[in-house]
Amino acid sequence: MRWTAAHIPDLTGRVAVVTGANVGLGFETARLLAEHGAQVVLACRDRAKAESAASRLPGPVSTVGLDLASLESVRTAAGTLRNGLTRLDFLINNAGVGMSPAPATADGFEIHLGTNHLGHFALTGLLLETLLATPGARVVNVSSLGHRRGHMHWDDLQLTGPHTLPEAYFQSKLANLLFTYELNRRVTAVAAHPGNAHTAFTRHLRPWQRVIASPRLRLLNGWLLQPAAIGALAAVRAAVDPALRGGEYVGPRGFTGYPEVTASSDRSYDEADQRRLWTVSTELTGVDYRLPSAR
User: Fold this and answer.
1) Were both Cys, which of 186, 187, 268, 282 would link to 264 (CB 3.0–4.6 Å)?
2) 169 annotated active-site
3) What is the pLDDT of residues 88-130, one digit of tens each?
4) How far apart are the two ends of the chain, measured CA to CA in Å?
5) Is domain 5-285 in CATH 2.40.50.870, yes or no?
6) Could you say which of 169, 181, 249, 258 is catalytic?
């Protein structure tokens, strides 16, 4: 039986933070949560676009500025969230860049690893106390089918040597999963992937690839790409489905489809790599996930 929006329970009283929620998968994720009663915070780099998106959603919706490519911005956003929220049921780490030719992050990290992984690693750690204080809280990290082609370049994580944009992106998506499985030892964490969906992600593809991915050709590419509203169901299920356990991976079994519990790559389950990435991420971000001794 396929899992659809009809399976989303009443979320009244629950609080969700969704990163990158002003467009695409993030917006559809926020919409599904808001339509079922959740109080949703859109955490986005462009505050004006976030406010515009919030105006199109029902219920109590707010925004916070968050640039995951800047640890200073991450710390500021986390402080705002800690001060403004009494609980945090769902932290959905959705935002990211893909195949981006942009330079390094503000902190000098490779743009994909810095934004897709290190920014979310820092944000989650800075919100950990609020998450642990909320019964049943979950962290959802959105990965990609592309993680299967990913390798951790331990000798050059920032890819300062010759590399391709797909190589950088796939490494960051593998990092999302290694992070999820190690994080689950501290707070309930579930990974999700949307399959292939029509989103702004395609803006960095080559011209012929953008043509193939165009929504105008959905009668031809429907087997390869699905609407963002369907792709977003994976992250929503990962957050709200009570039958799921921490450490599971949810998404279509193929390029498209409704979310199921599935398996990620063998490399993502390497516990030594999970611990190694955790240690490196702590050193790079300065966020160590240790709670005050009183707790």
Assistant:
1) 268
2) yes
3) 999 999 999 999 999 999 999 999 999 999 999 999 999 999 9
4) 42
5) no
6) 169
